[in-house]
Amino acid sequence: MVDRKDVASWLEGPRARAPRPAGAHPGSRLGLPAHGTGSVGRFGRRLVGAFIDWMLCQSIAVAFFGMHLGEGGPWSFVPLAIFAVENVVLVSTLGFTIGHRVVGLQVRSLDGGAARPVQVLVRTVLLCLFLPAMFWDTDGRGLHDRTAGTVIVRL
Quick one: which of 82, 78, 153, 83 has its CA closest to 113? Predict the structure, then answer.
């Protein structure tokens, strides 16, 4: 017999058929706590942090580079370049961007230490491609974090 899960499971993603083990939470496979400091940063916080960073980069592009909002052509990449520089510089030195800091998040290596410069660079390149950040695993890590060997945790 065919049920709704057989037909619509592709809409809900692979987790529709793979139940999480009892007692498991995002980050449990990584040895992270379920809640509080050190737990995996949830999607809502990450989204707000990215929005704050993007608005700051747009503002810098308008103020310092004379870009007009909604402008096409090569100028449309200026905010993205600023976003990339912000991520590489701030995450490799402080562990967070301005948006991450505002919402209480930090980027860490899977070993629990600070993200290394190569990890930050790989993460930033994939983040700027956008699509890797839109797909995440059961631990809440986007493909950009998974590929770079990093995780975003709560402060």
Answer: 153
Domain positions in the chain: 39-154
Half-sphere exposure of 135 (CA within 13 A, CB side): 10
Residue 152, number of CB atoms within 10 A of its CB: 22
As a whole number of angstroms, the distance between CA 24 and CA 64 comes to 47
Instruction: Output the pTM of the full model.
Output: 0.82
> Could you tell me if 109 and 116 are in contact, meaning their C-beta atoms sit under 8 angstroms apart?
yes
User: Which pLDDT tens digit goes with each residue over 8-46?
Assistant: 444 455 554 456 666 688 877 888 888 889 889 998 999
Residues in the chain: 155
Separation of alpha carbons 32 and 133, rounded Å = 21
Tokens of 44: 């809502």
Instruction: Considering only the C-alpha atoms of the chain, give the largest distance between any 2 of them, rounded to a whole number of Å.
Output: 63
> 12 CB contacts (<8 Å, ≥6 apart)?
none
Residue type, 30: L
